[in-house]
Amino acid sequence: MPNQKILYITTEMYPYQEDTNLASVVNKMALKMHNEGNDVRVFMPRFGQISERKFQLHEVIRLSGMNIIINDLDQPLIIKVASLPGERLQVYFIDNEEYFKRKQTYFEDDGTPFEDNDERAIFFARGVIETIKKLNWVPDVIHLNGWMASFVPVYLKTYYGSDTYFKDAKIVLSVYNEKNAALSSTISEKLKFDNISDLKSLENPSFESFVIESMGYVDSIVKGDEFLNENLDKAFNESSTAKSEYLDVDSIKTLY
């Protein structure tokens, strides 16, 4: 069924990241849906290792300039855009000097997770939602990929719960085996600032616990990796949300 508006929210995408299944799958899904005549947009963080010069990123002034309050601090939202190399598919990058300039993705060089990974995820989720609204583009399908994207449905169903903008959008969550790490113990205070509380994931906040939490906030879950690790597989099997086993790229449109 062409002519759907499909929004991919992802933490990785080839060729901006090259060596993961997640990055490859998102690239193939987005391109296939785009080439079949759908209106496809991709949103991802502008991590510091993504070369603006190589990939010809440029700032979209009309979309930038908003401030997002995280933990009582104003953080400026910068939106950059590029076309996927060799394609007419637009990729939007959520950027902020404080959160995304560093060259590493989630971990220090010694393997220690960044203390502000929670704030970065909150900023990314809210930045995507606010930018979509500013674009005045209402997606039919929102497809989430990567642990940071799992904050999006939590925010849509709580903080933005009375906002009707996304009310008809169906949300799909792809679950991948990502490296897990704990999130700051102060995340509950930061979410409380946005009137979000009573999340099971806050008992032991981590990348993985928020992916598992988000399974209850979406319309459909699909395995992004054919075999999931024990915790994710257990949560996947126990979830009452509609679910699909691993689908190849050619089959993804049947899910939509």
Automatic annotation (TrEMBL):
Residues 5-194 form the Starch synthase catalytic domain. The keyword Glycosyltransferase applies. It comes from the Bacteria. Its EC number is 2.4.1.21. It catalyses: [(1->4)-alpha-D-glucosyl](n) + ADP-alpha-D-glucose = [(1->4)-alpha-D-glucosyl](n+1) + ADP + H(+). InterPro entries: Starch_synth_cat_dom. Keywords: Glycosyltransferase, Transferase. It comes from Chryseobacterium caseinilyticum. This is starch synthase.
